[in-house]
Amino acid sequence: GGTFDVSIIEYANNEFKILETDGDSHLGGADIDNCLIDYFLKKLKDKYPEANYSKRLAKIKSECEQVKVNLSASDEAFFNFSVVHPDYEDVCSLTRDEFERLMEPIILKTLAILNRCIGRWQEKHPGKDYNGILLIGGSSEIPYVRKVLEKEFPKRILTNITPSKAVGEGAFIRGLFLWVDWFLARNLYTHDVDAIRIVDILPQKVGILVDGSILTILPEGQRVDEEVSSPVFYAADNARFFRIKVYQGDWETNEDLTTMGSFHVTIPHPGPSNSNPIVLKFTYCSDCIVRIK
Length: 293
Description:
Shape: globular
Low-confidence stretches: none
Number of helices: 5
Oligomer: single chain
Radius of gyration: 25 Å
Strand content: 25-35%
Largest sheet: 4 strands, antiparallel
């Protein structure tokens, strides 16, 4: 409901290999819901200027989500103003054409990200092509989403897989891998593991704050379970410890970063700040956790 993600995946010999990723961590189905909320709240204010809906936002959101679902199956859906106040007996209609115009800017953003990801992969692998586009997630079941993609990528959309089932089955397989790894590590599971293998990559860069700017440690596309070392110089002479802040995101183009955490590093042999670096080792692990030592 809050992210849009694109992955280019190669499958062969029971192995899924992620070749390229892109996306927007602040773009997703929730943005479509918010478009509907803004639309119906404007209609509500026009009809009932005195309406106080501040304590009914959860109900309004739920009603908007139902409108979105109904418009996937019908050409028209209705928002009941009674969710705001029982005395408001009117309903507000929304046609599928109106709904598509509301969410068009969001869909165009996702389309731009998809084209960017495909273009970047094709630049790295000239002459290569992909077999199809698989849609995953609830919003991909919206007819307009499929219509736009079919127009942009004719005969490339794979329609024989249910998006909601794909999410559930993928989560199950991922959880199964973690479960098997946990038992193998403790010698509690001795059977041969002949299952699907996933070779993942880091979707966004990971870096640390150094002298007011962020130093990239793990680049976007970093393979899992590969250790990367980086010397870090502390700022003050004779310091006994210093603090490291870890970020994830794209700091060259986007200031909206995710703070992954912070920790203190003890300096075993204090001295001049520029002569005794501390080496930090970063690993993006197969369980999607970044480990630092």
